[in-house]
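Homework help board

Subject: predicted structure for assignment chain

Our instructor gave us this sequence and asked us to write out the predicted structure in token form, then describe one feature. I got the tokens but I'm not sure how to describe them. Can anyone check?
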Amino acid sequence: MAGAQQVDNSPFSSFGIGNLHSDDLAFYQGFGGLGASYIDPFHINIKNPASYAFLNSAAYEMGVSARYQQTSDGENKNLGWHGNLDYLVLGFPLRNPINASLDPIKRDWKFGMSLFLKPHSTVGYNISTIQNDSNLGSYQNNFEGYGGTYKMMWGNAAKYKSFSFGANVGYLFGNINFNENIYFEDDIYTFENRYAIDYNVNGFIWDAGMIYSWFINKDAYEKDKSVKTKVLNIGVYGNSAQKFYSINDVTKESLYTSLTLTDTLVSDLGVKGEGTLPAELGFGATYYGDNKYVIGFNYEYGAWSQYRNSVRNETLMDSWKLTLGGSYRPDVKSFNNYFKRIAYKFGVFYQKDPQVIDNIQITDTGINLGASFPFYYQRKISHINAAFRFGVKGTGTPIQERYGKVTLGFTFNDDQWFIKRKYN
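My token output:
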């Protein structure tokens, strides 16, 4: 069955450029990801870059995760842990909110910026199958892959009154290696066939988004500040199909194990290739009931049938994911009960991934739980965000994964960036 890898251990990662990483940071993972429309003044939302303009404080965020999974083919099981650094993100408003509040001239425009580095996809698997042939006897097929891709992006957003628009631009890069070989156990006088692909991926990528924030009872709130606020956000994000380029080393060898002879059949080194990543679209809505509760949905679609890779010819299917989630915080202003200031989160999701096994598209179903713990660091409000995900992947296919994932995110805020000090 599958052997452990450092950052992933999934047979499903053998398709395309590997298992894709979500752009939801730990704060958003707690309710499954409402990235199309959720905004928060202290946390960065990289899924929809339009959200940067709603930041009221500079934020530095990092996240780590660990995942436990059980992979089964009906007869064999493999259990294992793996973990990784998930992301490094920096975001800030381009005008300090303290200066803005003291400015006698109220401005309708607001701007924000973000920089981040995170994994985009991961490849990690080691699969062995043993078969028998009446002439050749027992032989073993080995399939192994490792590596992945990363993306480094820079984003900007502009907000005018209740409407905001933003875009991320950046660079995709990484290295992926696939190996296959056949080993004949019963006949040492046969050739062992080996096939390897090692390619470096690179390309420029982008995405964009929009958010409209509707303060439903704004007039009533301006008359009476004790009125509980009601806000509805609607958002959309996406990107067009975009190209990537690769430099590939492809080798095919036959190894005569009894005489340690190797016959190189193909050795193409430094071959240039190219591929196409799909167009993607997401949209959703989030409703805020004062500072107590939030509820929303998010839908995203990926046209993975457009995926092309000149070095590996594969057919994938269009993917989609639906998330429903929300959070509840008993009392954000409580001074004598810390647990009332914690935001408790929940979410459910169902998705169809691009991979196909035996003409069955891979599904992923599960629940999310999370919490956001506020604390003060150097007299500034900051947060520890915990998210838990439990799911089943590959139902109805020859391979099934049951997994649990925990993510910890650390957010440090500073409201003194770009502040203009005045002296009398």
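Reply (TA_rk): Your tokens look well-formed. For the description, you could write something like this. The chain has one domain: 19-122+130-140+147-414. That's the kind of observation they're looking for.
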